[in-house]
């Protein structure tokens, strides 16, 4: 699947609608349309990287920014007191269905351990 057919690239380019919570020149945070918790946001870099294992050392600042932005959005939405979960799926067997790296921010229900 190429970048042109990537649903996240289309969302980032505003070719598809989304409920954006945050965006800047490096990444965007928007609400997942297939929520697995009452609060389920996706932190998505604008740079098309298919999966976590494709990150390179040059991408370290981007990964760090994804983490910091997740915390900032959680703070803004008042999620930090009760807690939240960050998840990155790697490959088909982990549940990755869109091959553009992204981080899930989940909150609002009891999240069990170990995860599914």
Give a quick rundown of the structure.
The chain is 20% helix and 21% strand. The chain has helices at residues 7-12, 60-76; strands spanning 20-23, 27-31, 39-45, 85-87, 103-107.
Note the topology:
Elements: H1 7-12, E1 20-23, E2 27-31, E3 39-45, H2 60-76, E4 85-87, E5 103-107
Antiparallel strand pairs: 1-2, 2-3, 3-5, 4-5
**Count of discrete domains:** 1
| Top CATH class | Alpha Beta
Could you state the order of secondary-structure elements as H and E?
A: HEEEHEE
Question: Total number of β-strand segments?
Answer: 5
Under CATH, the topology can be stated as HIT family, subunit A
Radius of gyration, CA atoms, in whole angstroms: 14 Å
Strand content: 15-25%
Q: List unreliable stretches of 5+ residues.
A: none
CATH architecture: 2-Layer Sandwich
How would you classify the helix and strand content by structural class?
Answer: alpha+beta
The CATH homologous superfamily is called HIT-like
* Total of DSSP H or I helical runs spanning 4+ residues: 2
Characterise the protein shown here:
With 116 residues, the protein is α+β, with helices and mostly antiparallel strands. It has one domain (3-107): HIT family, subunit A (2-Layer Sandwich), CATH 3.30.428.10. It is built from 2 helices and 5 strands. It has helices at residues 7-12, 60-76; strands spanning 20-23, 27-31, 39-45, 85-87, 103-107. A 5-stranded antiparallel sheet has the order 1-2-3-5-4, with helices on one face. A hairpin with a 3-residue loop joins strand 1 (20-23) and strand 2 (27-31). The longest helix is centred in the middle third of the chain and has 17 residues, at 60-76. It is globular and about 35 Å long. The protein starts with 6 loop residues before the first helix and ends in a 9-residue tail after the last strand. The mean pLDDT is 94.
